[in-house]
Amino acid sequence: MGWDGDGVLAGRYRNLGRIGQGGMGSVWRAHDIDLDREVAVKELRVPEQATDQERRVWYARMEREARAAARLRHTGIVTVYDRVMGQDGRPWIIMELVRGRSLEQLLAEQQALPPRQVAAIGLAMLDALSAAHVQGVVHRDVKPANVLLEGDRVLLTDFGIAALEGDVTITRSGMVLGTPAYMSPEQVEGKAVTQASDLWSLAATLYAAVEGRRPFDGPSHGAVFVAIATRQPPPPQCGGPLAQVLNGLLRKDPNERLSPAQVRDLLNAVLDPTAATAETAADAGPPFPHRPPRTAVLHPPTSDIPLRRYRTALVRAALLCTALGVLAFLTGPWRGTSEDLPLESSSGRAVLLLLPVVVAFILICGLWFLPHRPTLVLALVSAILGAFTWRPSSSSCTGSPAGSRPSNPTSDSRSPGY
């Protein structure tokens, strides 16, 4: 089964012309007669010299694309409407018609795109890949040619070599599945392909879009494979959070790559430089299973807390006030009928007064270097001031402390020995 004499497929899809052609087949624009809408029809072309085994593998690949895309319902993924089997066993896929061009075609015209535009494309691709991963689908061939642009809409297409959870593999020994320049190291080495592999390819695609060149290149597929497995890409010149995304995803070990959440935060930071999540995601480590991701901002900036910002000045001001209060105690006259100053007494009394003063000044000097412990400082300051202002009542002793008045305000007599 194919296009009949009137250019109709399966009695329903009328051929309106070819949209594109590649090594594996062609994509046609067609009109769905039953539903009166335009669709895209993907035709698989197998080389005539292909063996029966190779034909079966290619047919299985086309079937897999239909099943993989049929699982997914997302605005960033091209929708599959139908699948038609030809008489020769070839599958034809009927899918959503995207009126736009691929990212590869756009880069061929402009070579490199602004970082903000690349970040917006990256966010849309990340959302589409996340939706696929939730459904157990790993794309395995993320590249600019498989990213379609329709106005502000970004779509991911071609799930022909996707790995489906719970499905059997169709890979033959020696077959390379994927586009070499955008393949992850684990794909190159023939290891298990995971969701982290798609994130590597996402980063390679964004690298090509913003830097104007592929992260890994060479004169042959073998040279590209060696570069991917053993070398580091040239440092991206875009800088900022976008460069952190590229560096964080183009890591050889899949376990060391950034998580989708970290990538999303960084790409959002490119679109909104004031986003508070940028710094946290930028410095957060890879999501190792045995430990939680690190957070860069462990404490809020002190500039956001006025009391903490002026804490040192406030504490030292309190200490100065305490010192001045002690000096005032030593030099100021007592309020009362006595004309004596605090130190105008016997030498024994002066020693008793100076001892706590010396201790108080030593404490003040020590506390001067502890402004980060305001509670301790203020407690000791209160104790010092309390010690110098406390006076026992006359009922508790036979005499008053130095300079204090007796309990009888009319009497000027002093206790013996004073």
From TrEMBL:
The keyword Chloroplast does not apply. It comes from the Bacteria. Keywords: ATP-binding, Kinase, Membrane, Nucleotide-binding, Serine/threonine-protein kinase, Transferase, Transmembrane, Transmembrane helix. The chain crosses the membrane at residues 313-330, 350-369. Residues 13-271 form the Protein kinase domain. Residues 405-418 have a biased composition (Polar residues). Residues 279-301, 395-418 are annotated as: Disordered. ATP binds at residue 42. This is non-specific serine/threonine protein kinase.
